[in-house]
Amino acid sequence: MNWTAGYNTSVAYTNSYHHEQSPTFLNACLVMQRVSPPSIDKFTYCELGFGQGLTALILAATHPNGDFYACDFNPLHVLAAVSVRDEARLPNLTLLENDFGELAQGKVELPQFDYITMHGILSWISDETRAQIVQFLRRYLKPGGVVQAGYNAMTGCAQVMPLQRLLTLGAKREGGTWTKASALARTLAGIDALHFQRNPDSLLRIHDFDAMDPRYLVHEYLQEAWTPFYFADIAREMSEAKLTFAGSASFSHMLPVEWLTDEQREMVNTIADPIDAEEVHDYCSNRLFRRDIFVRGNMPLNDARLREQAEHIHVWGNASVAYERVVASEHATVTRGPEFHHTLYALLRRSEMTLAQIFDSPEFTGLMLDDILKILRLSIATGETSIRYGAEQPCETADRLNAVLLSRAERGEVWNALASPRMGGGAAVGTLDQLLLASLHEKTDRTKALSKDTDELIARIKRSLVATGLRLRIAGAEVSPEDIEMRLGHILADSGKKLIAHSEHLGFWRAQKPAR
């Protein structure tokens, strides 16, 4: 076997941030599922298979109290991440170019870790390499440590496996770009091959190809060892490293699952084995991707210890999401009772609160703690509410990283998030918004600059649009070159102040005192 171990290294991975890998978010998920989390006063963290490194970079910048390690065996990925790390001066991030076998065998000097995370990598590597990861976890995870693993789920991906096989066949026949590699699948779908008629998910994926980043598609589909897994099989492998399932890093899938119908919930409750019951949940939701949390030593939180941990859980309302009584997920809808759900919504729009304050709020007198957790989990799942474990950390390192990311965005590098100390990780930001932020970043009075320096800001954003190749679109229509200046002026006038306020709210940059 060569050094790639079945992983496609022909192109670099996308610059994507995954919040479920944040240690503060993982701690919040554990507490919300009544599991004791590690301390984040001082901790060690490792990401396996970091891609372009955006997640590791943002987490190191927003957790200066953590000692971060991240490993990837693709030298292109390591070079890209090292360049950003060094420019942003992140002293607490060590980037390694090693394969998992070298790590598992102790050939690299490493500490014991409180957190080890991996996004997608389990589904893209060989059985041998996956066994090396389990060996690494057994060797380097501390007692009480946390593992977060994201991977393709068999129940939702079963009918996609023939499509993946067809795409790899197309790559073998055609080679070259993703467009050529996917030509065979597109052709068969276009001539009504019966597989696509009877497997609408596969056909829908083909229709979505043109709207997706080809780099992501190469890494998602053109892997030699592309494997979706049943949950029970991954849980069994993790048990070999003394790990037990602690819950989900997705609030939509936390138990008790709100999205199940009464009949589904009643049936699942008859299954005694919790691992089997968790796997049956995937059939109810046809889940495509799992975000699982495993721990080495599962210590449940009783009511007294839950109240202690609740002092560290911070929640606040998302002003951009309106309250809806009927809410939808990827696979179901839920109709909420009006009384306590809307009460929580209104409370969290007034100010940030701790979970302990919510427990003691007179509005929820008479409710059991688990009833309050259930209401809050659903609110977080809908996007109405944000959550963080622990105090907001100092912003100096996050400021440095964001300055680097915004500067590079102007030169054509694409990111999907910036560092947010308030979130304890990253927050999504579109490319155009990043270019707007970059133009305002160094202004001593950004609000005044919206009107005072409009021509300068527009000229800078236009140069960035050329560098990124981004096409300005409004209401679904592409803006013509002669109208771009006018449209950018309208965007700055209509949305500039809101964007500045939103950025200060999330901590993308520090709030400025109004000039006198």
Uncertain spans: 1-12
Number of helical segments? 24
Measured distance between first and last alpha carbons: 67 Å
Mean pLDDT: 90
Number of domains: 4
What general outline do the C-alpha atoms trace? Answer: globular
Could you give a short account of the major beta sheet? 7 strands, mixed
Describe the overall structure.
There is one protein chain. The chain is α/β, with parallel strands linked by helices. It has 4 domains: 19-153 and 229-295, 3-Layer(aba) Sandwich (Rossmann fold), CATH 3.40.50; 156-221, no CATH class; 313-389, no CATH class; 396-506, no CATH class. It has helices at 23-32, 54-62, 75-88, 100-104, 127-140, 154-157, 161-174, 178-181, 183-190, 194-198, 200-208, 214-221, 231-239, 262-268, 274-285, 303-310, 338-350, 355-359, 369-381, 396-410, 431-440, 446-452, 454-468, 484-506, and strands spanning 43-48, 66-71, 93-96, 113-119, 141-152, 244-248, 289-295, 313-317, 326-328, 333-335, 353-354, 385-389, 417-420, 425-428, 473-474, 477-478. It starts with 22 loop residues before the first helix and ends in a 10-residue tail after the last helix. Residues 1-12 have low confidence and may be disordered.
